[in-house]
Predict the 3D structure of the following.
Amino acid sequence: MVSVDLERAEGALVWRVPRGWWGLSSAAVGGGLVRPRWVLNLGVGDDFTRTDLDRYASSRADGLGVSGPGTALLTAADVSQVVATEVDGLRVWATVASPSRHGRCRRSGLVTTVCPVGWATCPAPSTSWSS
């Protein structure tokens, strides 16, 4: 099995994704069914008001030394407090903000997870288009 490891950086978590892997993400930047080369979990503070999320994530990705297509999660949780576990070969990382400790999530809390799941790699099917 190919390993996907977490790299910690100031205010960010970085995963470099093996070539050819698919990702399914609800991330604001690079979400959907994608083939990312990296995944970022970027911590943002209560004062974060930017609306140019693609530009912000691209700038952070450049500063973290990742390039190509990627997925960026923006979280109000403290990414330095990431928790990881592994069960039967499935690794999961989570950042969690308690409703009592974080102003943005007073009612329900916040959980951000990254879960690489591997299975047999198959070549992508060819697609033909006709008009």
Observations:
- Residues 6-114 form one domain.
- The chain has a mean pLDDT of 77.
- The first strand starts at residue 6 and ends at 9.
